[in-house]
Structures are given as C-alpha cells and as structure tokens.
Amino acid sequence: MYSKGTKRKFYDSVDAATDNKAALYSRQRQSLLDMSLIKLQLCHMLVEPNMCRSVLIANTVRHIQEEMTHDGSWQLVTEAFGSSGPSDHLVATEVLCRSSALEQQGGGPKLYSVMGYDGCREEEVVTDEALCSVTFSGGAPSLLGTIDHCWDRAELRMAAVEDRVIKDSGSEVESGEGAKTVMGQVFGTFEIKNGAPGSDPALEELFSAVDASYYDLDTMLTSIQSTPKMGPYNLLDSMASSHGPTSNSSCRTDLSELDHIMEIIVGS
Amino acid sequence: SQFNLLLVMLFVTADIISTVEFNHSGELLATGDKGGRVVIFQQELESKNQPQCRGEYNVYSTFQSHEPEFDYLKSLEIEEKINKIRWLPQKNAAQFLLSTNDKTIKLWKISERDKRPEGYNLKEEDGRYRDPTTVTTLRVPVFQPMDLMVEASPRRVFANAHTYHINSISVNSDCETYLSADDLRINLWNLEITDRSFNIVDIKPVNMEELTEVITAAEFHPNQCNTFVYSSSKGTIRLCDMRASALCDQHSKLFEEPEDPSNRSFFSEIISSISDVKFSHSGRYMMTRDYLSVKIWDLNMESRPVETYQVHEYLRSKLCSLYENDCIFDKFECCWNGNDSVVMTGSYNNFFRMFDRGYRQDVTLEASRESSKPRSVLKPRKVCTGGKRKKDEISVDSLDFNKKILHTAWHPQDNIIAVATTNNLYIFQDKL
Fold first, then answer.
1. Please, are residues B302 and B309 in contact by the beta-carbon 8 Å criterion?
2. What is the ipTM, given to two decimal places?
3. Which residues in chain B touch residue A60, judged by CB atoms under 8 angstroms apart?
4. Up-side HSE of residue B36: CA atoms within 13 Å toward CB?
5. What is the pLDDT of residues A76-133, one digit of tens each?
6. Kindly report the CA angle at B269 between B268 and B274, in degrees rounded to 5?
7. What span, in angstroms and rounded, lies between the C-alpha atoms of A199 and B2?
8. Which chain B residues are Cβ-neighbours of A194 within 8 angstroms?
9. How many CB atoms lie within 10 A of CB A192?
10. Whose CA, among A83, A223, B31, B390, lies 20 to 30 Å from B83?
11. Please, which residues have CB within 8 angstroms of residue A221's CB and are 6 or more apart in sequence?
12. Which residues of A touch B399 (CB under 8 A)?
C-alpha cells in the first residue's frame, strides 16, 4: 500500500488529466465539507436555528465523510493535523479571521444570507459542475497518489471571508486542525461514536477522546452559548496555549495512534 | 396559450409576507407577515359579478396576531412571524381563522358590526349614565345602521404544545379538530379545547444524535376525516389513518420516488426535501413541492408520482452556489386551482410557474411592477439555459435570487390568483 515515502511518479498526459480531475474533485469536496461545517457552526445567536436546514447540512457532511472514508482520503485528514507543527499558528490566524468575521457581522448566518447570488460569481465558486454530478462508490478514482500534492495546495474556502482568510499557504493548514475539532463537534452527535452499522471503529477511536456532553445535538441546535466548551473563541485560546513542547509530544502520541489507525483502515 | 392573466390589484405590505390563503368561498384573502400581523382582503361585492373586475379586493381587516416572545429557559427569541393561516369553513355570520407562529396557534374570530343599538333608557348616546329619576317614559332600543366595523378577536390560544417550530396547521373536514406539525411531532387539537392536545406522530429519536430526518409539512385529507399526510426532509410522504392507532408513527402508506442514479450528487437529499404538500380538492391526488420540481401523486400508488413538472431545472447545475448562499433551503409552496386541472408554484426572479395538467402546457410569468401593467395580459417569460440568448429571454446568471415567490394561492372557484413577492401582494385574474 502507499506510504508516505513513496516516490512520486512521472505521469503521462492521460494520467495527468485523470489525476487533475481527481485532485480537483477532492479539493472541491473538501471545500464543500468546510463550507458545511461552517454553516453548522454559525447558528443564530438569538433565534433558534432552522432544524430542517441544520439536519440537511449535517447529513451532507456525513455523506462527504462517508465517501472520504470509502476512498481512503479520510485518513489524510487525521494525518494532516499530525504534522501540523508549523501550521498551528496558521490555524490560529485562520480561526481568528473567522472570529473577527463573526464579530464584525454580528455573529449570525449573515455570512451567507447577505451575500445573495451576486456574491458568488461563477469563477469564485469552483465546486459547481464537478460536485453537482457526482457518483458515489465505485466511481471515485484512486486519489492516494495525488493526495499529498492536493493537501499541499489546499486552501480553506469560505466565500464570504475568503479575502480575510487567504494567506500564503505553505502547508496544509486549517482543514486539518480546525476541521478536526468542528467535525468532532458534529460527528460527536451522530452515530459514529455509537457504533451504528457501517461505522468505522478506527474513526470511533479517533473521536473517542472527544467530550460527548457538549456535543448534544439539542444543545448545539438550540445554540446554548452560555458556556461553550469549545467554540471558535475558545479554540483560539487553546491554540495559543498549546504552542509549546507539549503539543509536540501530543503530536508524537497522535502519530503512533494514527499509525495504528492506518493499519486498521488499510488492513480492512 | 391558455394562460391569460391580468394584474388587478397590487398591495405593498409593511413587512415581508409569510403566508397567503383564500377562505373557502374565495371572498376573503388573508396574508400573514413577518411582523406577526394578519391582513385580510375582501372581494368587492359590486364587482364580484362583473367578469372583468371580479379580482378586485380591498383591505377588510388588519390585526396583530402574534407578538415577539422570549423563551427565558433557552434564552432565545420566539419570532412573531406568521408561518401559516388556515380558514375554518363558515358556520355563521362570523369568519374564523387559525394563525400560527413557531410555537403558538391562535383562533381568531372576524366579525362585522354595521348596526348598533340606540335608544337606551338608562344611558345617553355617548355612554354616560342617565339619572334614573329623570326617566319619565320608556322606549325600546333599536338597531341603527352605522359605518361598517370589522373586529378581530382572539377566541382561543393553543400554546405550549410544541417544543420545535410549527411548520403546518390543517383543519380537519370534521370542522371540530385540527392538526399542528412541528419538525418532529404532530399534534391533534379540538378547536374548543386549548389546554390539551393529542400527539399523533412523533419522529424524535430517543438519541437526538441519531436525528437525520424532520417533518416539513402536514395536511388533513379534504374529505376523509381520519386521514392525513406528512412530508419529510428526505423526500418521503407518509399517509396515516387515525383509526389504525392512537399514535400514527406507523404509516399506512409511504410515498417515495426512487432516486435517479444519474442525477446523484451531494445535494441530492437537500433538493429532495419536500417543502409543501397539498391534497387536490377531489382528495384523489396530492401534490408535493421539492426544490426543483412539483410532483402529483395518486393516493393509490406509492411507488412513484403520476406526474412530475420541472419548475426550474436550469438550477441543477448551480446547486453548489445555491447551497453556499442558502437559497437551496428556500421553501416554496404550491397550490391547485379549483377543479384540480392546473397547479402553480413560485420560483426566483419573481417568476411563478403554472402547469396545466390536462393540456400539458406550462408557463412562466413574472410578478413585478415593470412586467405587469394593469389590465394588460402578462407576457410569458423564458429563461435561457445556454447558447444564444434570444430577445426577451433572461439568462440564468441574471436571475435575481433575492426575489423569490414562496407563497401563492388560488381562489377556490374562480381563476383569481394571489402571488406574494417579498413585500408585494399581486392579485391576477383570468382575462375572459
């Protein structure tokens, strides 16, 4: 199987085209995942969020996660934050931008609702065509060869805050760390932890450390913000405090756990 | 074309219209808005029998139905926006309607007063009491005509029965009960009793972490008082029979169309979510609206709809943008005409669509000041989906997604329609 040490091959033009498509698809899918997670986080502060909308977005996130698990790219999400030493501060910057965006806009879903259709020109939104006609299992090309390359260039796409968030992304960034916490929030509420049929035991292990009490869907959907244990503001704090040797050691532990998880995923 | 519509009335409302409903005779048209107000329009009596201007409606009554509230337990506001209005069939001189916001349903009585008693013995005309010792003769008070006054008074308040947001109310054909549906539960009420309701559907999972589906709409059958349907965010409709059991979690029929594998995408589920369900007047069919289409179902066939009409198929390639700006979650309503031969629903850019089931024709019309000159027939609109744009066509990228028509209503007998844009109410009638 592929390991991190695999030499990159020289692709001829046909393969390159396919792989470009695959990389594009993977990026677009990631973009959709990020967008969905942000939508879930940005709930009305004063008024209860629309439950139908929240459920539909959460289901979309789950579909993406299932597909990513299926084609093996999910493991790279876990890998990404394993090697995120230098990207910690980038994550912090990222989250800071998110927070300031929230503060500036009053913290509502205004990031999306005021945009209107005018705000998302065709060029900006990369995802339309590829994502609108996707087939699931069996159709997804093998992405393992190009994932490293893809992650190197990954940028978090949030249409409304794109200007503030875009930075010189040398490394993977955000999607790793930020997404892990947010996804933990979302998936902590679903049956992955509870071993529903088809759930991945490796993923369960991954999220088992997540504190389930906060991730009660009722709580999340009714946005009780009084003592958020891990909202974006707190995330920033914890980021700042975890910049030391302690984060490295936890990375090391994570890495060995991840190897273990990889073995399980790969083995199955 | 057989769709010839004239603009008859245009009302500019103070707030965003959130629901529109004709009463059973069509003489009254009620609108609810985001500010909790109800405005009722009445058809002009003199013009009712004149074919050319039977669509003339004027403001009849305005009242504040719901006020904003605050849920102290959750520290959340309860919006006063009127989600739905449903009229009761008329039994006497007064009219009754149910209006609901997210949490509370109210029964309003709308009555006219055009006479008042005069000639009291113990009271002056202005209401001051007369000194009884000054009364030397007695007279019988009589009713004298006065300027018409329309009064709306709340007769019942049905509160505290819904944890989640109410999306539908529906009056039963027995005229004694009605149902109210929120995201996870449906309750059955007696119109006379406000402190009790029966829960008839509950799809709340024991573990909220397993929640993947919500109720989006519900309606009673128009003549079978034991039957109702409810639709879900996964594109299914369940028909339930209240005679079968007290709790109708087990459906009698499940209507679901198999997914088209060639159209599958990450947005498949979202666009399959049903935003409205309406029985035909006959009770033989029901219509559902999902994001891109309108489907007609025969109640006797659960496996697939008998008719499917594409409302704005050109949006299929734009789903990601529409997801990004949240338009994909817009809930469009739909309605039948009086004899169930035509159905209507709204779209973007202030367009609305009508589908004639018999003639297999459809038309796109626009409700806007620019395109609706009074007394001139509405011109059909066309959206250009690609390639060369013809004159008078509008390209998909020029559509205004902030101008959406979510609420439309059709007069129960006549070809008069009410179309609500954001804060304009248009009334069109058929040109004869």
1. no
2. 0.93
3. 266-267, 269-270
4. 15
5. 665 654 544 333 333 333 333 333 333 333 333 332 322 323 333 333 333 444 444 4
6. 115
7. 55
8. 207, 209-210
9. 25
10. A223
11. A43, A48, A49, A51, A54
12. 117
Decide if B419 contacts B352 (C-beta within 8 A): yes
| pLDDT value for A55 | 96
Residues of chain A with pLDDT > 90, as a percent, come to 11
**CB contact at 8 A, B335 and B343:** yes
SS (H, E, C) B82-107: CCEEEECCCCCCCEEEEEECCCCEEE
Q: pLDDT tens digits for B209-249? A: 999 999 999 999 999 999 999 999 999 999 999 999 889 88
Burial of B109 (0-12, 13-18, 19+ CB in 10 A): middle
**pTM for the predicted model, two decimal places:** 0.71
B129-162 core/surface letters (b: 16 or more CB in 10 A; e: else): eeeeeeeeeeeeeeeeeeeeebebeeebebeebb
Report how far residue B425's alpha carbon sits from residue B26's, in angstroms, rounded to the nearest whole number: 16
Task: Report which DSSP code applies to B158.
Answer: E
User: How many Cα atoms occupy the beta-carbon half-sphere of A26 within 13 Å?
Assistant: 31
Q: Residue A11: which residues within 8 A CB-CB, separation 6 or more? A: A19
Kindly list the distances between the CA atom of residue A192 and the CA atoms of A80, A181, A202, B94, B139, in Å, as whole numbers in the listed order: 21, 15, 10, 56, 83
Token pair of A177 as six digits: 């760390």
Sequence letter at residue B248: C
- Tell me which residue in B267, B325, B399 faces A132 most closely, judged by beta carbons: B267
* Ranges of residues in chain B whose predicted pLDDT is under 50: none
